[in-house]
Design brief:
Helices cover about 30% and strands about 30% of the residues. It is α+β, with helices and mostly antiparallel strands and about 130 residues long.
């Protein structure tokens, strides 16, 4: 079974810290990422840029709006796809991610949301 995991953060809290401090926190993530990847259950891991566009259909036209579109102070900073037998194992695998392993991540509001995927179709890139 596949699960999509959304990594959240509070960008205002991260932006309030000096770049050197953020760089040190991100460097501390590396050993945890290696353990996470070496679990053999990670299908894809992607960090997301805050630059976004929102597409929606309105009055028979597609409207494009600049984002981000966060209704709260949180922002999705990463997305990863894992394979697990069930939600319990998905929680075990996702808990290896730096979001839950790095203590300093607490001050930035780091957390992970796990959702089972009901439909999955891989595509090969044509780029």
């Amino acid at each position: 079974m596949k699960f999509v995991c959304l990594g959240y953060l509070d960008p205002a809290k991260m932006d309030a810290r000096p770049k050197e401090e953020i760089d040190a926190v991100m460097q501390a993530c590396q050993p945890h990422l290696e353990r996470f990847y070496n679990s053999g259950r990670v299908v894809i891991d992607a960090g997301l840029s805050p630059d976004t566009k929102c597409l929606r259909r309105q009055n028979e036209k597609v409207i494009v709006t600049d984002g981000p579109f966060v209704e709260s102070k949180e922002m999705i900073g990463s997305v990863f796809l894992i394979e697990a037998r069930d939600m319990e194992e998905a929680v075990e695998i996702a808990s290896l991610h730096p979001t839950t392993q790095i203590a300093s991540g607490e001050q930035f509001g780091w957390r992970v949301e796990i959702r089972p995927i009901h439909y999955y179709k891989p595509f090969e890139s044509k780029l």
